[in-house]
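Q: Sequence in, structure out?
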Amino acid sequence: MPKNYLFKLLAVVAVLLTVGVGVTAASSGALSSSAQRTLVWVESQIGPDGAVLSPMTGEASVNYTMYAALGLASTDTHSAALDRALGYIGDHVEEWVVSSSIWDGPLGSDLPGRLGYLIMLVNARGGNPAAFGAPATDLVSRLQALDGVDTPGAYGTPNPYSSIIDQSLALLALVAVGETVPTASVEWLVDQQCVGDLIPPSAMGGWMAFRSSTGGVADPCEAPDSLNYLGADTNSTAFAVQALVAVGRTSPVADALGFLHAAQVTTGSMAGGFPWFTGGEADPNSTGVVIQAIIAAGESVTSAEWLAGGKSALQSLDAVTIQSGAEAGAIWYPTDPSHTPDLIATSQGLWGLSLAPFPFPVFQQTPATTVVVTEPLTPAFTG
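A: Exactly. Output:
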């Protein structure tokens, strides 16, 4: 999603049915050189105390630390850095999961998407999400307490900017820890999909961030609008696909993949990648989460079906990745002419580079390792 809006949302913002049960995350040997290089850069951002500094304030930030940790958790490597990050996050649980801005939700309320991310992160490292942090916090119970608090079937108070992502993360987290996912919560997510006779063709199969209801009936979907950031979007759709695959409700997935395929960019330096809204420019954040959805659905991002302009989504990520020097592996945002490393874009891009849908499987409990890239730092793709 566009960088300027992403920061607002931060203040605001066999098909994997067995993921997280007896499955191990990708090891360094299974990763591409691009993914390994990016993992090394993300690890370098985690300080000795486990914190990542905000590029805007220069101070320790639980938001940036969470995204760095979620990037590292997409594989079973770099466990020492991830453990440091989890230690810092464990001391700042409330700061992460409780709303401090009206953009996120009611002030002081628990946020389902934030809880979902943290539950999956702790679980992936083999921790106990029911007793995490200092003091020990039952993240799972706090998430379950949000079921239907405002709208039957929905977790938390629906947010017009992020409800589908929040709901999807809640369902994914429950799957990750083996908890029962309420049928009503799955159906709420399915009912939000843009399908039916009155749906604009460009929105068909996708999800908007949130569809309000009138008289108990979901209001019409809007066509994607990349200028005003309205309508069905790739990010909401990609998270919904991952959640529905995880709970075994796969019938809506084919239409969703059709929506994503239609959004894929065919020209420019990021050809093969995905924009937030159909018709916009591809960005690494959206591309990373759409790759996750494609993999979750059992398809290959390098197959002919998912090439656009002769490029794959992985190649589009490579086009915005620093290839050499001290910042090698970092991803920049396409609208930044200075190519400054963007940690959130890098971490979300890494989910795609690692070919790792949510929920991430549990780490192998092996001694901490660090991947060292010894090959020449040259682009993995050209063109």
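The longest strand covers residues 52-53.
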